[in-house]
Amino acid sequence: MNGDMSVIISGFGGQGALFAGILLCHAAVVEGKHTTWFPAYGAEMRGGAVNCSVNISDSDVPSPIIDEADAVIALNDASQEKFEHKVKAGGFMIINSSLSHLKTKRTDINYIKIPLNELAQKLTQPAFVNVIALGAFLEKTKILKIESVKEVMKEMAKTVSAKKAALLPNNLESIEFGANIIRQQMVTA
Amino acid sequence: MNGDMSVIISGFGGQGALFAGILLCHAAVVEGKHTTWFPAYGAEMRGGAVNCSVNISDSDVPSPIIDEADAVIALNDASQEKFEHKVKAGGFMIINSSLSHLKTKRTDINYIKIPLNELAQKLTQPAFVNVIALGAFLEKTKILKIESVKEVMKEMAKTVSAKKAALLPNNLESIEFGANIIRQQMVTA
Amino acid sequence: MAKVLVKGNEAIAQAAINAGCQCYFGYPITPQSEIGEYMGEHLPEMGRVFITAESELASINMVIGAGTTGTKAMTSSSSCGIALMQEALSAMCCAEVPGVIVSVMRGGPGLGNIAPAQGDYFQALKGGGNGDYKIIVLSPSTVQEAIDLTYRAFHIALKYRNPVMLLADGVLGQMMEPAEFGEYPYKDPDVTQWALDGANNRPARNIVSLHMPEGEMEMLTNRIFKKYEEVAKNETTYEDYLLSDAKLVLTAFGSVARVAKAAVKRARDKGMKVGLFRPVTLFPFPDKDLHDTAKKANMILDLELNKGQMLLDVRSAVFGACPVEFYGRPAGGLLTPDMIYNKIAELYAKLENTTKTEAGVR
Amino acid sequence: MAKVLVKGNEAIAQAAINAGCQCYFGYPITPQSEIGEYMGEHLPEMGRVFITAESELASINMVIGAGTTGTKAMTSSSSCGIALMQEALSAMCCAEVPGVIVSVMRGGPGLGNIAPAQGDYFQALKGGGNGDYKIIVLSPSTVQEAIDLTYRAFHIALKYRNPVMLLADGVLGQMMEPAEFGEYPYKDPDVTQWALDGANNRPARNIVSLHMPEGEMEMLTNRIFKKYEEVAKNETTYEDYLLSDAKLVLTAFGSVARVAKAAVKRARDKGMKVGLFRPVTLFPFPDKDLHDTAKKANMILDLELNKGQMLLDVRSAVFGACPVEFYGRPAGGLLTPDMIYNKIAELYAKLENTTKTEAGVR
Amino acid sequence: MGRIVIDREVCKGCYLCIKACPKGLLRKSKESNLHGDFPVEFNDEKNECIGCAMCAMNCPDVAIREVYR
Amino acid sequence: MGRIVIDREVCKGCYLCIKACPKGLLRKSKESNLHGDFPVEFNDEKNECIGCAMCAMNCPDVAIREVYR
Amino acid sequence: METLVYKRPESLLKDGHFTFCPGCGHGVVLRIIAELLDEFNLQKDTIAISSVGCSIFLEKFFNLDVAGASHGRSPCVATGVKRCKPDKFVFTYQGDGDAATIGFNETIHTACRGEHITTIMINNTNFGMTGGQASATTLVGQVTTTTPAGRKAELTGYPLHAAEIISKCDGTAYAARVAITSTKNIIQAKKAIKKAFEAQINGLGYGFVEVLAACPTNWHMTPVESVEHIDKVIETVHPLGVFKDITAQENK
Amino acid sequence: METLVYKRPESLLKDGHFTFCPGCGHGVVLRIIAELLDEFNLQKDTIAISSVGCSIFLEKFFNLDVAGASHGRSPCVATGVKRCKPDKFVFTYQGDGDAATIGFNETIHTACRGEHITTIMINNTNFGMTGGQASATTLVGQVTTTTPAGRKAELTGYPLHAAEIISKCDGTAYAARVAITSTKNIIQAKKAIKKAFEAQINGLGYGFVEVLAACPTNWHMTPVESVEHIDKVIETVHPLGVFKDITAQENK
Ligand SMILES: Cc1ncc(C[n+]2csc(CCOP(=O)(O)OP(=O)(O)O)c2C)c(N)n1
Ligand SMILES: Cc1ncc(C[n+]2csc(CCOP(=O)(O)OP(=O)(O)O)c2C)c(N)n1
Ligand code: SF4
Ligand code: SF4
Ligand code: SF4
Ligand code: SF4
Ligand code: SF4
Ligand code: SF4
Ligand SMILES: [Mg+2]
Ligand SMILES: [Mg+2]
Questions:
Q1: Most exposed residue of C60, C309, C344, D168, measured as fewest CB within 10 angstroms of its CB?
Q2: Measured between alpha carbons, how far is C116 from B39 in angstroms, rounded to an integer?
Q3: Is C215 at the interface with chain A, CB within 8 A?
C-alpha cells in the first residue's frame, strides 16, 4: 500500500460515519500526513443519510471530492447501495452485515462483511459501530497506526464534557476490537 | 421661427415652473405637435429649485434633455444664474425682475425682463407668475397659440377639484395678461 | 385611440391596469411614487387590490402570493427598494412564479440621490439574489414603449412563469410625452393547469423553492435554463438605428438611447457613418445580433448613465469582433446630445486614421 | 505554530478572532452556521461583541454601525441571507464603511438546497445593491487560504474603507484539512482620522450615503472608482498553475480550482499541456493577466459550480484572444476530478486537430 | 372497551403516548423497527383500554392510526 | 419685562408662535423675506412681554433665537 | 360493536409521514390542523403557506395546495394569495425564528391590516432547523448553540412575547398562546386554533396562535423531559392564555 | 438687567437651519434634543444615527457625529455603534415610516435586546419625504396620496400603535407617546425625551419616545390647523401617555 488513501464512510445519522472520518483525519495529522475530510448530508431530519470523504496522502491533496475511493465503509444498506460503484477496481468495501442483506454487485473489488451491530453487543456498552469499522479499516489498510487514532481519542477526551470523556474506554475498546476482527478474520466475504 | 422649440422653465418650488411646462406640452398636443416635458428637482424641501425642459417639434423629439435651449424662463435669481449659459446664441431669456437683480452676462442672447410679481399684483387675485410668463413666452415665440393653452386650461378645470377649478378665470386672465406684456412691450431689456 | 400627454410613471400604471393587473403591492420611493399613487387612486375603485406594503420585502412577497394563484400582479420601486427584493426574485425564478416588477432607477449607490440614472443594470440583470436565475428585463426608451412593454411584461410573465422587470430610468419615469394606450394586445395563457386554488378533485399542488433531494435542484435549474433559451429565441428584441453601414456603432439602453439618437442624427448630418444598437430586452440580451453588428463595424461606443455595466454584456457579446469604448456618467449625471456628439466626433476622427484595431482589454 | 485539523468555517471564525474582529453580528443559515456558533462561544468570553441579529438585514446594518466607529466587525451568511444584505452593501461602499462579510454559498436559486455551489458569484461580484459600487471579493481554495484571506479581508477593509467579502463555497466551509493560523500579519491603518467617536474638539463628522446636491454623488462615485483602481493595482491576485506552456487554460475559483488541479495533474501526466488560472481576488478581477494568458493559449475552459457566472468576466477579459468554453453544474451538483479530466481530454483532442479558432459567441 | 392501531414503522419511540395513556397500556417494544427506533406496543391483556384516544392525541407522528371504542 | 430676537430670514411664517404667545405680541409681517415667506414680527409697544419663551419653544425653526427677561 | 373514535385525518397526505425528530412538537400541531380542516371540510378550499424551518416540507405532509415562502415572509405570501382568492382558506405555518424573529414585521403588519388569514406559530424557543441557535423567543439562561453559556440578558436581551404583541394590533381578531404538553393542553390548543380559523372563516380578521412546542433534539432532552420543561419553565416566561378574542368581547 | 432665558442650543450647527416645510414638527423635536444634549453636556460624546425621511439631513442641523442608516435600519446601526463605543451617547431619529413601518422589526428587536440607545420617532402618520403616502400609523379615514378616498379599514387595516408595542418588549426601559402641539405638550415631550435619554445614560435599557408631529404640507393644512388636528383627532387614535417607565416601577 502506498501512502495515498481515499475512503468514503457512510451511514445514517446517528451512526457516527462523520465522526469516524474525523478521527481518521486527526490521526493522519498526528502522523504528519496531508489529509482532507468532506461531509455530505441528506435531506431528512430523521435518520437522514450522511457520509464523508477522507483523503490521506504524503503530498498535497488537491481534491477533497473523491471520484473513485480506495475503500468504502458502508454502515447500512442504503450506503452500500449508494457507494458500491464508487470503489476503485481492486479496492474494498466494508459492509455492516447486521443492517444490510443486499447482494454485492461487483467482482473487481473485495468485500469485507462484518455484523457490526451484533458484534458491538459483545463489548462494554455503549460500543460504537463506526469506531469498530474504523479499527477494521485501519488494520486492513495499515494506512495509519491504530495507536495514532487512540492518541487522538485521548486528546479529544480532554476537551469535551465529562459525560463524553467518560466514553473514552469504550472508544478505545471498540477500535481495538475492530482491528481484531481483521486480525482474527472474523469476516465473511 | 420654425416648428422646433426648446425651453427651460425654472424657479423655486411653489412658483409653478413645472406646471407652466405642462400647460405648454398639453397645448402642443392640442396642436398635434411632438413634445416632451422633463422635470428636475432640487435637494431642499423648502423652496427648493425646480425646473423643467420642454421640447416642441413637428417631428419626433429624440432627447428630452436640452443642451442649449431656444429660450429660458427664469422665475427667480437662482434660475437666472443656473441657466443663463444654457440659452442658445440668438435665443432669449425671460427674467423675473421682481425677484432677480442680477446682472446679465451675455451679449449674444436677448433678455426680456418682466417684474412678474409686481405685475401679478395688478390682476384678480390670486394671479400666477408662471402663467403670466408663459403668456409672454408664447406671444414672443408664437410657437403655439395662446388659444390652445386656454383650451387646455379649460379642459383641466373639468377634472380637478372645485376649489382648483374656480381658479380658471384667474389663469385665463394671467396668460392673456402675459401675452399683452409682449404685445405692449412692457418689458425692459 | 388618440395620443395623450402622459408621464412615464403614470403611463406604466395605466398600462398595467389595462393589461389586467389585479393587484398592486408597493412601498413608496422617489422617483416612482406616482405609480403607487396612481394605483391607489384607481385600483380600489375598480374592485382590484391595492396595498401599501410595510416594505419592499413585503411587496414582492405579496406579488409572489398573488403569482402563485396565477393572478396578474405588480410591484414597483427604485434602486435601494429593488435591492430589498433580491431574495424574493431569486425564489420567484426558482418556483416559477409570474410577476411584474417596475424598477425606476435613481442615482446610487446607497441612498444616492433622486436624479435619473442607469446604475441598476447589474442589479436588474445579474441580481443580488442567490443562485442561477434570470429575470426577463425590458427596457423602454419612450413613454409609448413604456406602455407597450408594460403590456408585454404582463404577458410574458405569465407565459414563461417568470418575473419580468420593466427597467426604466428616472428620465423616463418623470418625463411626459404624448402616447397612445390602445388595447392590451395579448392572449394570455391558461393558468388553471398550475395555479393554486385549493386541491379540489385534483392532486394537491405546490409552488416552492426548496428542493433537497440530491440532484433535484440541478435538474430543475437545467430545465429552467432551457426555458430561458426559449425566451431568448422568442423574445430577444433590439432596435437597429442606421446600423447597415455604420462604422461606429453606439450601444445604449433606455432614455440614453434616445439622447444618443439625437447625436447620431447630427453626426449623420456631418457625414459620419454612425448607428445605434439599442437592446430592448436586456435579458435576453441580443448577443448574437450585437456580435454580428460588431463584425461589420470598426468600433463600438457603449453609452450608459453609470460606470459601465451593460458594457460587460457588450464586451462579452462583441468578444473581440471590434474594439469597445465606453462613455458614461454615474449617479445622476446626464449625458446630453452634445456630449455624445462630441464623443462620437472624437472617436470617429480616430477611426478615420486607423484601420481595424486590436481588441483592447477593459 | 503547528498545523491543526480544522473545518473551513471554523478556520474563518478563528482567523477573524486572530485578526482582531471585535464584533460578530449574524443570523444562522446552513452551511455556515458554525461560524456564528464558534463566535458565540468565543467572543463573549473575550469581552468582544456577539449578537444573533434578528435577520441578515439587521446583521449587516450592525456591521455598518461598528464600521462607522472604525471597529473591525464581521458578519457571515449564505446565499438567500446574503441577498438580504444587498441594500446595505451598496450603502457601505457609498459611505465608505469597512466591514467583512463571509459568504458560504449553497445551492440556489431560492431556498435551493444546502449542497455546496458557486451560484452566488454574480451576487457577490455584480451585486443586487443599487448603483455603481464594488465589493472586494476574495476567494479561498484551501482552508489555509481561508485563514490567510480572512486576515487580508480585515486588513484591506480598513485600508480601503470598503466592504470585503470572503466568498467560500459549501465544500470549503464544511471540509476539514490541516492548516496553520500563524499571527495576523498586517499593520492596520489609523482610523482616528475618520471614525465616529463624538465631535470632541474637532469638527463633527458624518458617514452617510445620501448626497443630494447636484453633481455631488457623481464626484463621489468617480472618486470611489479611482480608489477601486488603486485596489486593482495593489491587490489583484491570481494563482498560476502550470500556465507557462499551457495550450488549454482552465479558469476556476474556490474549491473547484483544487479539484481542477487534480485533473490538470492527470492531464499533464498524459502529456497534455494544460494549466490553471485561478483568480484569488474576484474583484479586482485579474483581467489583464487573464487576457495575456489567453493570448498565449489556444483555448480557455472555464469551470464553475453554476451555469456560467465568472464566465462573463472571463469572456470580457479574454475578449477574443482565444475561444472560451464552459463546463459547469449548478445547484449543488459537484465537479469531480474525473469529470474535469474527461472534459480536458475532449477539448484537448479537438485543439490538437485545429489551429487557433475564431472567437465564439456565448 | 377499546383498541388502538399502531404503525410500528412510523413510530419513532418518543414515548409521549406512554405518558399520556391513563391506563398504562403502552410500552416500549424490545425490537427495533427498520429505522432503528424502538416503537411502542399496545399491551392490553386485561382489556382495560377505554378508547379515550389520549395516546393518539399526544402522538407527534400520527403513528397511532386508529382508536376504537 | 421681556424681549425676543427673531431671525426674519429663518422664519418661515408658520405662525405657531402667534398661537403660543400668551400676550399676543407676535404678528405676521407685511413684507416677505428673501424666501418669499412673510415672517412674524415682535410687537410689544406696551412692554407686555414676560419673557416666557413660549414663542421660542413652539417655533419649529429656531427662528426665535433669543428670549430675554 | 366497535366504533372508530379516532383516525388519521384526511387532510394529511395518504403516504406522507412527518420527517421531524422523535417527540418534535410540530407533528401534534400539524395533526390538529389537519383534523380541523377535516372538521370544517376545508381541505379542498385551502391554500397553505409553508415557511422556512423544520416544517418547511408542508407539501410532503398535507394533501393541500402549498405555496412556499422565503424565511419570515409567509404572511406576505398569504396576503397575496388571500387577496386574489378571498373565498379560499389561507393559513401560514411558521416557527418562532420565522414569524417572530426575521419575519416579525411581516407578522405585525399583516395583523394590523387585519388580513383574513390565520398564522400558527410553533415556538420552540430556537432555530430548530439550523441546529438550535438562539432565536428572539429564547429564554434568558437557555443554552443554545449560539449561547453555549446560556443566554445572558446583559448581552443579548430578553425573549420576545409574540402573542401578546400581536394582540395589540387592531386588525387581530384572535391571539393566543397554547401548549401541547398534555392531553388537556392539546385539547385547549385545538380549541384556540379552531377559534383562529373561525376568525378567518367569519371574516373577522387576523388569527394568531402561538404554540409552545418541544424541540427535543436541540434542547438535548428526551421528548418526555421536553414537554415537562415547557410546562415547568417555558410557560413561566411565555404564559399560556388568550390575549385577544374579539368574539369574546362581543359576547360580553 | 436683562437675562437671557432662552437661546439657540449649542448642539445645533452654528450655521445650520432646518430644511423642513413651514410648521413641520421635526424642528421642534430636533431643538428639544439639542437642548437636552446641551443640558447633559453630551454634544462631544454623542453619535447620532440619521434615518430616511424628511429628517435625513441630521448632519446639516446638528453639531454631532452622524452615521446615516438605510431606511428603517438605524436601530441596527445604533446597536453596532453603541456596542463598539459603550461610553458614547447614541440615539436614532426616525419617522413613523422608518421606525414603525419598514423598520419596525429592527425597532422591536432592539427594544427586546435592551440596547442602551434611545429612539425618537416622529409620527406624522405618513411618509412625509416621499410626498405623503399612507404609512403604518395612518388613521382610518385619513386622506393620503395612496388613499385619496381615505384609508379604509376593510382594505388596508388599522394604524399601528408603536409606543404601546415597544412598551411590551422586556428590554425597554422607557416608552411614551407625546405631542408638541402646545407649550404644555412641548414641556411634557421634553420631559419624556429626557427620561428616555436618562435610561441610556444610567444603563437601564432602551428608550423610545414617539412624538406626534405635524406634516402640514402633506396634510394640506396650515401649521396651526395641523397642531389642532393632532390634538383633536390623532390623539384619539394614538393617545398620549407613558406606557413603560421602569424607574417609575422601581419607585413604587
Ligand atoms: C434569509 C434566510 N436566513 C436564514 C435561513 C436559514 N434558516 C433556515 S430555517 C431557520 C430557522 C428556523 O427556525 P424556526 O422558524 O424557529 O423554525 P423551527 O425549525 O425551529 O421549527 C433559519 C435561520 C434561511 N433559509 N433564509
Ligand atoms: C428601502 C427604501 N424604501 C423607500 C425609500 C423611500 N423613502 C424615503 S423617505 C420615505 C418615507 C419616510 O417617512 P417617515 O419615516 O415617516 O419620515 P417623514 O418624512 O414622514 O418624517 C420613504 C418611503 C427609501 N429611501 N428606501
Ligand atoms: S385509547 Fe386511551 S386507554 Fe386506550 S391505549 Fe390510548 S390512551 Fe390508553
Ligand atoms: S407517541 Fe407516537 S411516535 Fe411516540 S412512542 Fe407513541 S406511538 Fe410512537
Ligand atoms: S417670550 Fe412669551 S410673552 Fe414674550 S413674545 Fe414670547 S411668548 Fe410672548
Ligand atoms: S414659529 Fe418660528 S417659523 Fe413660525 S412664524 Fe413664528 S418665528 Fe416664524
Ligand atoms: S430539530 Fe427540533 S424542531 Fe426540528 S424536527 Fe427536530 S425536534 Fe423538531
Ligand atoms: S413634508 Fe411634512 S414631514 Fe417633511 S418637511 Fe414637510 S412638513 Fe415636515
Ligand atoms: Mg423554532
Ligand atoms: Mg412620517
A1: C344
A2: 10
A3: no
